[in-house]
Amino acid sequence: MKFYPLTFEPIYKERIWGGTKLKDFLNKSFDGNQIGESWEISTVANDVSVISNGEFAGLNLNELIEKYPTEILGTKCIEKYGLEFPLLFKFLDAKEDLSIQVHPNDELAKLRHNSFGKTEMWYVLQADENGRLVVGFKNKTNEKEYLKHLENKTLVHILNEIPVKKGDAFFLETGTVHAIGAGVLVAEIQQTSDITYRLYDWDRVGANGKSRELHNDLAVAAINYEKTDTKVQYRSKSNESVSLVECPFFNTNILKISGDYNWKKSKDTFTVFMCTEGNFTLMTTNSKSEFKKGDTVLIPAILEEFDIIGETSLLEITI
């Protein structure tokens, strides 16, 4: 069997806060004006990604892993997660502010939902003037103070709002209260989980005239009330892979390529590339593939070496 870089049909999610930037900036194709998320690679129940290219086109990712577990996932991934694909990759377009929310850790998510927790990171692809993120508390707080501000609708007064620009990166451990602000487009890398506790939704209502459900009873035990430093400090370099995040669940590098870059890895893990700028050609011994900004590519673990040719910027993710 000749393995090759895999692409998938995007899974589009209409959101009350969504817009058209996924189409305008990332070459996505969809109808509607409120698409907030493009799930690029997913094995979340009822949202399993389907392969869109090559010999495996039409199979979903779980089916392919069942047929070729070691070749796709790699030994390190299987030892840690079995045949479960451990990560979820998204692009998010916040035309309006997202709800203020928090995600539980592995232990709490397992106990309550039989799920992974949701450690994640954001990479800012584009931000309008005054674009911002909400990430954690300004100062250390506690449950009592938090609940008082929640009741008084002054929660935002104790939250840390950070202005952002293209290229900013943030690491959000579970328990970090957060929201993407209006006008910000991000790439998101996270554990395979769809568990979110919504704390505050800016008092807005949907098309049905009703407010969205909040989950404050569940959230209280999940929140980290300490002050946290979430912004990643890094300096990218041409034709060199630079670390953004290393954590128990994923490792993310930024790889800016100009010309021809020979890429090598071991067979112990898959790799995912999210193209944030430019275009590139990926040459293996068996295949030649063309990719552009907005594409997300899964490199099976069995592929150890190939050439990347072009002018591009990639997020490079492994476990």
UniProtKB/TrEMBL annotation:
Superkingdom field: Bacteria
Every Mannose-6-phosphate isomerase cupin domain range: 243-315
Gene Ontology molecular functions: mannose-6-phosphate isomerase activity; zinc ion binding
Pfam family, one: MPI_cupin_dom
Keyword field: Isomerase, Metal-binding, Zinc
Cofactor annotation comment: Binds 1 zinc ion per subunit.
This protein's record includes keyword Zinc: yes
InterPro entries assigned: Carb_Metab_Reg_Kinase/Isom (IPR051804), Man6P_isomerase_Firm_short (IPR014628), MPI_cupin_dom (IPR049071), PMI_typeI_cat (IPR046457), RmlC-like_jellyroll (IPR014710), RmlC_Cupin_sf (IPR011051)
Keyword Isomerase assigned: yes
Active site positions: R198
Cofactors, names only: Zn(2+)
BP-aspect Gene Ontology terms: carbohydrate metabolic process
Residue sites binding Zn(2+) per the record: H103, E120, H178
Chain ranges of the Phosphomannose isomerase type I catalytic domain: 9-115
PANTHER family reported in the protein's UniProt record: FRUCTOKINASE, TRANSCRIPTIONAL REPRESSOR MPRA
Protein name in the entry: Phosphohexomutase
